[in-house]
Each structure stands twice: as C-alpha cells, then as structure tokens.
Design goal:
Shape of chain A: elongated
Number of helices of chain A: 16
Strand content of chain A: 15-25%
Distance between the termini of chain A: 52 Å
Radius of gyration of chain A: 28 Å
Oligomer: homodimer
Chain lengths: 444, 444
C-alpha cells in the first residue's frame, strides 16, 4: 500500500487521451458505417472466453500468445480474446437454427495478445470483424471485400495507397499436390508457407522434405510463394504459373470476375504468398497491404467453411476478415490523412460557448441557459472562470472552435445577451428569451 | 483438443446478438451525445492495468473482486479494470501540467468484477464515466449531474421514473463528530454506514462502539442513515435533522441551490443513507435510483478532491460519476422504453433492398449497382437467393424495413428497373442509369 501508484499503462497497451480517442472514433466510424451500408448488423461477445474456446481451433500461433487466468477460488480457465472468430463461431453454433440467414455480422471488439510489442503490433488492440455466413458462392467474398474497401475509401485511402492481395487455399493445395505433397500434410504445408520468412533456408528445406517434397519441388514451392499475377489472369495463366490444372484454378477465376464486376478489380492483385496463419481457412484467403509492401498487413481474412461445424453448429459456409486499428492508424498518419496530435479537428465542435462576466445575475442565468440549450440538443460549453476580461474568456471559445459565443455581460440589466457568430464574424444583442430559438435557426 | 468447444459465454458475461447490441448502442448513444452536448471529450484507457493501480486507493470492496493475472513468463501482475477512476487519475497525473483545464472527460469502457452474478450485477459490464477535474465550486456537480439527467431524459425516463439521491460526506462527517466519532476513524464510520444493510444489528453496534460511538450515538447514527429531506431544505433544517451546525450544512445547501437554478431540483432528493463504497470521496456523494427504490443504484458518484494527488499528480478538485449498462437496461425494459427482443426497430433501416430475378444480366448488374449506391452513402441490402418468385424475395425487403426495393427483372432488357417505394407504397419503372440519383432524391 506504500508503493507509488503506476504512472504508465501496461506495456503494449494504450491511453487514449481526447486527440487519440478522436482518431480511434474516426476510424471506427468509417468501419461501422461501411458495415451498415453493406447490410451487416453489429454484435459483440465477452472480452474473455473459456480458454477451451481457443485451444479447439485457432492453431498454435495464437495459443502461445494468450493472456489466461482464473478467478480466485474458481475452477474455470479463461483467456482474454486474442481474435473474434471463435466467439463468432460459438454464437452462430448456439443459435444457428433460429437466426435469419444469411448471417451478416460485424463487430469492433478489443483483442489481446501476450507477444512482444513492436511497430504495428500491440498487446491490446481494436479489431473490426466482418463475417458473412450461409453463402457458398463468391458474392460472399465480394460483399466482405467491398465493405473493407469502402471503409478505406471513406478514410481517404485509394487503390494507389493500399492493395487487396488474394490467394485461394484450394488452388494452392492443387499446386502442392502436383508437387507431391501428401494430402494429410497440407495443413503443415500451409503453416510452412506462412512462416517461410521467419526461418533459415536450411530449416525450410528440411520441413518441406518432411511434407513429401524433394529438392526441386521445394524450389518450386518457394517460387509459388513469390508468384504475383493480375486479377484479370485467365485460368490457363494461373494454372501455368502454379503448375495445377486450369480446372483447379476455376474457383479463383470466378471470384476474380465477380470482384471486377463489382468495381473492385483495380484494388486487387493475386499473390500466392498470402497464406494466413490461422488453421481454419478453407478457400479464398486475402490480406490488405500498404501498396509498397511497407508495414504489416492492414487486414486479413478468407473463407472458413468448416469452422461453424467444428464448434458444434451445422455445416455452414462462411467468409470474413479482421482489420486492426494499429496498422491502419500508422498508415493514415503517414499519408497525412489524419490531423496531427496538436490539431484537434476530429473532436466535436461546440455549437455554443457561454461566457459570464461574473455578475450575480449572469452566474444565476448561465446554468439555466446551458440546460435549456442542451435540452434542445445543442453542444454547449462554458467558462468556469469569473473575470471581467471577457476577451480572454472568448479566446477559450475560439480555441475549441465553437460556432457561437454568448456573453452574459452588462446588457443583462436590459434583458439582453451579446451574441457573436464566430463563423460569420458578426455580433449583435438579442433578448434572453430568444437565445435558444435564434441559435437553433442558424444552420450548423 | 478432443473436448467439444464451449457453447456458452463465461458465467456473468454476455453475448450481444444484433437485438441486444442495438439496445446497447441505443443506451451508449444517449450517454455519448449528452456528454458531448455538455462539453466533455471522450477518452479510454487499457482494459487491464497494473494490479498496483487498484491496491493503492480503491478500498477492499473492489480488491476482493479483481480478475488478476500474469503473462506466461512475465513478472508483472495485472488486473482487468473493475472501475475507471484509477485509470482516469493515472492519466490526469501523468499529464497534469500540459492538459487544458478544466479537464472534462467521459469514457464508456468495459469493466470486470469477479463477484457472484445476480440481477443487475454481472462480471462484465459497460460503465459510462463522466469526470470534471479542476473546478472547486458546485458548478462541477451541476454539470456532471445535468449530463446524467439529460442522458436519462433522452432515453425516455422522467423524474417520476428515477431520482437523484444526494448526500455530502463533509456534512455527515460533522454529524458523526457531533456524535463522538473520532476523526481518524471517519473512514471506518463511512464504511460502516455503507455496509449497514449487510450486517446483523449486533455487529453494527459492536463496530460503532469501536469507532467511539456509544449506544445512544449508535441509534442516532442509524437514524441519520434513514434521513431523507427535500432538496429545498434550509441549512437549519438539515442541521436539525443531522445534529450538526447550520454552517456545516452550508456547502450542501449551496449545491442544492445551484441544482435548482439549473432546473434539476425536481429530479433530486437529499438522502443521508447515500455513502458510496469507494474510499476516495471527499464531499458530495450521489446515486441515481429507480423512484420506488427497486433495483440497485443506476449510477453513483461524487467529489474526490484528493485522488489525483494520491496518484502522484498535483492537488486538483474533481467530481465524477459512473452509470452501468445493466441496471438502466433492466429499468428501460421494465418501463417499456425499449423494443422487445423480437422487435428490431433499433437496428438501422436499409435505404435500398435489391432483388434479382436471376437472369445473367441481373446477376452481373446487382453487385455493380450495390457498389455505386454504397459509394453514394446508401445502406444497401440485397438477396442472396436466385428465384423467379420475386414476391417471396420482396418479403425479405419488408422484413428488414427497407425504404425502397429495386427489382432487377425482365424490364432490364429495356434498360429499366422496377422501383417500389415501400414507405409510400408506389411502384414505377426507372432507367438503370438514373437509379442512384432517384433514390438519393427521396428524403430519408
């Protein structure tokens, strides 16, 4: 009890002072509005779940990064949620028979990973999740990708700033098969591809051999991971590049054509190095990246047609993605799409700033006037200082960018208030009883 | 890995399906908009903090209810935040010299308490926090209470539904002094008052004796805790009821007069049974209750002038309150101020619902049209089914309460789309190229 109180937030977590919170709400607003415009409804789940929810399907990458705990005296193991998809799958499985279909949900929850904090990666972060469940065809991918793209457009980013990188596990699996990979080792092959940049070439070769790939097949595998093609590529082109059959490439070509139809083609590239670390993807996989390849992925997702079933629900096709707030925040700042720290222009602008010159009548009137304007839906700030230096108090009004200033000064004796329209730069005297109506009459 | 995945959220936590989430956002919207209209800026902090942040000042009531944990291999002890005030005090203390004053902040974070779940109390809940730091006078209390009241008004509650119950630790301390309580045992006396309903009379008497109160003083103490007076009471009336001097009662009387001035008088009662469990309050304390006294407190707060200093900041006066989402949600539901579970009228209404009769041209046009309408800011849903039974598909449009339905049917051969204004009940044919402009021209 005698140690001083901590001054800093825990490592890898953030304090959101008003300017940082305004940036967060600005990003969340674009996420939320694009979701709603695309017909997704908002959901949320618990911040912590039973630990078992994550040991079932998420894969080792996430298990090692869990913050887990028990209640003192309790017997259940819990973990702070590292991602949203297990919660989503649980919620769908629990009510699959009664939910209207297709299920179109989005969420903007907080997530936690006990990893080493670095640029673009924190221990606590906010992640937008968009999921469409119950649609087999590629229109599902088109809808979730369009939701991501429209949100980024509304944040001021264009297809020269960010690129959607697409691959397809089915197509890559066919290519791996053609190279000699064993069917039962495909999951290991994807995990190997995903982690290829994190190991020495010798380790990569040894693991490829364990999967059934000889030296030349391993060279081909590394080449596949470097293959990038236009979204307009034909099935023959894709098949030629990957070494699979054109029929194998067909599902990806159909998706590409739909994306082009929906006006998303110029945002997208094929990139067969995109794998996604999570084990549960079954078809398309995609990531959004900064155009030059700088920074970590801005978003990632894909199709996971077996996951709902594995959580005890019915068999249901599903597509979804997650976009964290950290990398997109860095990108928006770097591109000048956000106000700087000092510039609070994302904070809401007051409609009215009230100044009292300090007389007893003014002090009595100020809270009354503020209350009636707030009941009328106006954003009202006022000074807490009492000084006759009204000019100094007015500078507060200008600083917070109020639209109007009202000065409760000497004119109160005649029942009048001085009104400054700070936008128009005009000033006039108005009767106390007309103030609310007059302010409401000025368009915002 | 072989056990089935959990189907339920952890005990005391909630899944928010779209109808529950719509209710949560409805409540949060009233909280946020009232905060902004009163000139508060939004902040947030980490979901977990260093455990030491809570062992410093919160009092035993909260310490026993913490969810605490360590990172595997880490050395720091953390706890999920049980309340927001310690985070707020830490954030203020860390930047007190550079923050513009007064500091007016609100937050809507998630909180966690490892207690037994019961009606109105969960292990995870959302709590609105409003704090005003740097103002000594009672205008600070008026502003935070007005923020609470305006939010409740906007949720449809009136002063016959809920009451603000006010007390003042300074005034009650004077009364305790007059009864013989020792100055250095005042904190114990407040803790005793706060927990009086949770102990046997014999235990109450024994503890009162330890504080320095004899039998008759203990009877008087119990009477003080049952004292309720009008907000318009004079200093003499309050002094007479509590057994302190009128001078002691003056700070409360000044607060009451300010509240009446600001039009809040008819929402408020004096209730000297209000103590608040947290140790850090130094002056006014208040709770919001359902008018008949049913349910737990809807909100609680007060003045905490020493807290910022105790977290290593400068000495700064402060007033704030917290309002959880659980009790107010129960109350709104009980009073019929929320749609029922089946009625989704809080969910956003689509502007347009697109239906395709299934021709190749319609299937090609649907994603294009959806994309251009969404870029124009419209909320667009569409069917994922392909059937010629357009009537059945239109029922989906009606079910989600879309404003307009567009049918991509046989008229497409002539470049026309059937447009149903579902509000006005009219139907007409419009050229494909004019659709977006025509929909935008109809006022929402």
């Amino acid at each position: 009890m005698s140690a001083p109180a901590p001054r800093q937030p825990p490592k890898g977590t953030r304090d959101f002072y008003p300017p940082e919170m305004a940036v967060r709400r600005h990003i969340e607003k674009a996420w939320r509005e694009s979701s709603i415009d695309h017909g997704f409804d908002e959901i949320d789940g618990p911040t912590f779940e039973h630990l078992a929810l994550y040991t079932v399907k998420s894969g080792d990458g996430i298990i090692n990064e869990l913050f887990s705990f028990r209640r003192a005296g309790g017997e259940d193991d819990y973990a702070l949620r590292p991602e949203f998809t297990p919660t989503l799958a649980r919620m769908v499985a629990a009510r699959a028979s009664s939910l209207p279909q297709p299920i179109k949900w989005f969420a903007i929850p907080t997530h936690f990973r006990a990893e080493r904090p670095q640029r673009g990666r924190l221990r606590e972060f906010i992640q937008w999740n968009v999921d469409l469940i119950g649609v087999e065809g590629p229109q599902a991918e088109v809808d979730v990708l369009s939701t991501a793209v429209v949100a980024m457009e509304r944040l001021g980013l264009s297809h020269s700033d960010v690129r959607v990188k697409l691959s397809h596990r089915g197509v890559v699996a066919a290519a791996l098969h053609a190279l000699g990979a064993q069917t039962e080792r495909l999951a290991d092959a994807f995990a190997l591809l995903d982690r290829r940049d994190k190991m020495e070439p010798s380790e990569f070769d040894a693991r490829a051999l364990a999967i059934g790939l000889g030296a030349s097949a391993t060279t081909r595998l590394a080449m596949i991971a470097r293959t990038q093609l236009s979204i307009e590529s034909s099935a023959d082109t894709i098949a030629g590049a990957l070494g699979c059959s054109p029929t194998d490439a067909q599902p990806l070509v159909e998706l590409n054509q739909r994306l082009i139809s929906a006006g998303l083609g110029h945002w997208c590239d094929l990139d067969f190095g995109i794998v996604r670390g999570l084990a549960y993807y079954t078809g398309s996989v995609f990531e959004v990246h900064e155009a030059s390849g700088a920074e970590r992925a801005i978003a990632g997702g894909g199709r996971y047609d077996k996951l709902i079933e594995s959580f005890g629900g019915p068999s249901m096709p599903a597509v979804g993605f997650g976009m964290g707030d950290v990398v997109i925040g860095l990108l928006l700042r770097d591109r000048g799409k956000l106000p700087s720290d000092d510039d609070l222009t994302l904070l809401p602008r007051p409609d009215v700033f009230l100044v009292s010159a300090g007389s007893p009548e003014a002090e009595q009137l100020l809270p009354q006037l503020a209350a009636s304007m707030r009941r009328a839906g106006l954003h009202v700030r006022h000074t807490y200082k009492t000084t006759r230096n009204v000019g100094k108090l007015l500078s507060e009004a200008v600083k917070c960018r109020a639209r109007h200033a009202l000065i409760l000064g000497g004119e109160l004796e005649q029942g009048m208030i001085a009104w400054k329209d700070l936008g128009a730069g005009t000033q006039s005297l108005i009767p106390v009883g007309e103030v609310v109506a007059r302010i409401l009459a000025v368009p915002r």
